Amino acid sequence: MVQLVTKDIRVSIRTRFQGAFINNGLKQYAFAYTIRIKNEGKHIVQLKARHWQIKDALNDIDLVYGEGVVGKKPVIKPNESYTYSSGCLLSAPFGSMSGYYEMVNIETATKFKATIPNFKLNAAFAMN
């Protein structure tokens, strides 16, 4: 598990290789990840948006921006957490992801970023 705390928000990630398949004549590698966002602060916060940088071993870079996560903009109270699962496709059997969440402190309306630590996406068969 990879994790990082930014401004009292702990982001923890677990990844899984889901398999490979051919899509429009190109081999693709599917990865799933589960992310837990824990509020270790004293104020209620809300996740408003996500920013991802997805890289694969072929140096392809995908930049992704979107509101919320998996269609939700969760409100997270102190000492509570929100967990979700998602996934991505790569053109190579290994790569990485990183980014940040746009958050807002509900009580003060202060916006801030919670860093998503860099995490690896690896298919076991491709590792030495």
From TrEMBL:
Among PROSITE patterns, the record links this protein to: APAG
Where in this chain does the record put each ApaG domain?
Answer: 3-128
Instruction: Identify the Pfam families for this entry.
Output: DUF525
Q: What is this protein called?
A: Co2+/Mg2+ efflux protein ApaG
The gene for this chain is apaG
